[in-house]
């Protein structure tokens, strides 16, 4: 049964705390691995929150780090237990980007640059279906529907009345011009995009072709920020077979600066809204 506890975030916080304890002890990941007779890569994966961690692992690590405060050990053990629970997305089966969904579910804000498509959080069902079918031609109809349902469930963060996700997206004009699912689907999609962009917590800007070269030419990326100061920001870069998560402060800063340049070069909010509405009308002809 899915839990209200976000296992992805629990793993990240637990990993950060274990890394802090290791560094306080003045030990390297290699030294810890040698003490526990495990691989160094396992210690690294536990610390970066990319894999679940057992209470036994926590107990062993606390022993190596000589943590004597029982309250700290108990707290870490509880975090390990929580990190092994299932988030809402697990009810849909094996989702390739489940780590990202876990981060997005708990994020306070998301800044995204999309060069080719409408962002998943702002897609209509027909657009999402056509997009997934075209991007993954060997995917079965049932798996396509599963991915669509997950995408629509993710959108609840944007429509939430209590704690909506603060979404800022910069779109290349190509995302508006690429016909996905036919002209009718595109018209409805752009009308929906224009409507969503009017929400107080959603900002959409368009990078028109005339801008020329810009910092986003290397491809799509997203920057996630979290309500708890203990959770570092994450840069997410989607890949074909694997995804990349950057958490080092220097990396996040570099991508944040790039994003500021994209925002500065893009049309402003009002101009972007009109730009999207005009292209939507073109699809209606």
TrEMBL record:
The superkingdom listed in its UniProt entry is Bacteria
Pfam families in UniProt: DUF5753 (PF19054), HTH_31 (PF13560)
Q: What is this protein called?
A: Helix-turn-helix domain-containing protein
Source organism per entry reads: Streptomyces hokutonensis
Domain (HTH cro/C1-type): residue spans on this chain: 18-73
Q: Which InterPro entries match?
A: Cro/C1-type_HTH, DUF5753, Lambda_DNA-bd_dom_sf
């Amino acid at each position: 049964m899915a839990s209200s506890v976000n296992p992805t975030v629990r793993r990240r916080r637990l990993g950060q705390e274990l890394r802090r304890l290791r560094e306080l002890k003045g030990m390297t990941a290699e030294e810890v691995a040698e003490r526990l007779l495990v691989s160094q890569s396992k210690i690294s994966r536990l610390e970066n929150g990319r894999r679940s961690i057992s209470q036994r692992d926590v107990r062993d690590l606390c022993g190596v780090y000589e943590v004597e405060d029982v309250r700290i050990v108990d707290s870490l053990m509880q975090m390990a237990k929580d990190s092994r629970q299932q988030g809402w997305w697990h009810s849909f089966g094996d989702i390739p980007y489940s780590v990202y969904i876990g981060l997005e579910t708990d994020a306070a804000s998301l800044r995204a640059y999309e060069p080719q498509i409408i962002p998943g959080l702002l897609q209509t069902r027909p657009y999402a279906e056509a997009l997934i079918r075209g991007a993954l031609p060997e995917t079965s109809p049932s798996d396509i529907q599963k991915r669509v349902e997950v995408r629509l469930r993710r959108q609840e963060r944007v429509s939430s009345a209590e704690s909506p996700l603060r979404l800022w997206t910069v779109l290349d004009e190509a995302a508006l011009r690429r016909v996905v699912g036919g002209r009718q689907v595109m018209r409805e999609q752009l009308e929906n995009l224009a409507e969503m962009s009017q929400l107080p917590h959603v900002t959409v800007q368009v990078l028109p072709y005339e801008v020329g070269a810009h910092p986003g030419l290397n491809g799509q990326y997203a920057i996630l920020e979290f309500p708890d100061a203990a959770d570092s920001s994450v840069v997410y870069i989607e890949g074909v077979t694997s995804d990349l998560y950057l958490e080092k402060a220097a990396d996040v800063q570099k991508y944040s600066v790039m994003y500021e340049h994209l925002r500065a070069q893009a049309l402003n909010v009002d101009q972007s809204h009109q730009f999207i509405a005009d292209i939507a009308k073109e699809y209606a002809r």
